[in-house]
Specification:
Order of helices and strands: HEHEHHHEEEH
Strand order of the largest sheet: 2-1-3-4-5
Shape: globular
CATH architecture: Alpha-Beta Complex
CATH class: Alpha Beta
Low-confidence stretches: none
Strand content: 15-25%
Number of domains: 1
Number of strands: 5
Length: 162
């Protein structure tokens, strides 16, 4: 299914079910927020989007713990989880989504290669985190777009289980 159709389907579900969402993005730099808000009527479901690209913003805005950041690094399941859970509390929405990863073309290591992305989604009674390795051969924008598509699918699946 084409991205715009996926977005239309998702946003229709969000509006119909009166579900409010918030997004905390790092490696996607606002791409998810942009795509959710480009659909007319987004103000009915989209409450806040935070681009927490730097570690400082993760600490100050999303209240991730310095200890977690130091121990696991910004691109980790642990930070993704804290970003998501803290955003849910801060935003008082039904669903919070967090994304952190390495989109490249630099910054990768053997342990954390370019293309490594964590997507978190949480609501009051459910938390899910997915790890993806899109591969270092893809361009930065391709990694970001794949992250967007996976995120849309995860939100849709999450709604279906609420």
């Amino acid at each position: 299914m084409h991205l715009n159709n996926q977005l239309k389907n998702l946003t229709t579900k969000l509006k119909k079910n009166k579900i409010k969402v918030a997004v905390a993005e790092s490696c996607t730099g606002g791409l998810i927020s942009y795509n959710l808000t480009k659909i007319p009527g987004a103000s009915k479901f989209f409450m806040v989007g935070i681009v927490s690209y730097s570690n400082i913003s993760k600490l100050d805005l999303l209240k991730v713990r310095k200890k977690t950041l130091t121990k696991y690094g910004a691109v980790s399941a642990e930070i993704c989880k804290e970003m998501c859970n803290n955003l849910l509390k801060i935003s008082k929405t039904n669903i919070a989504i967090s994304v952190t990863g390495i989109a490249g073309p630099d910054g990768g290591t053997k342990k954390k290669p370019i293309g490594l992305v964590y997507i978190g989604i949480c609501s009051k009674n459910k938390f899910e985190i997915k790890k993806f390795n899109f591969g270092k051969k893809l361009s930065r924008i391709n990694i970001q777009n794949l992250t967007l598509k996976k995120t849309i699918k995860l939100i849709e699946n999450h709604i279906n289980t609420l």
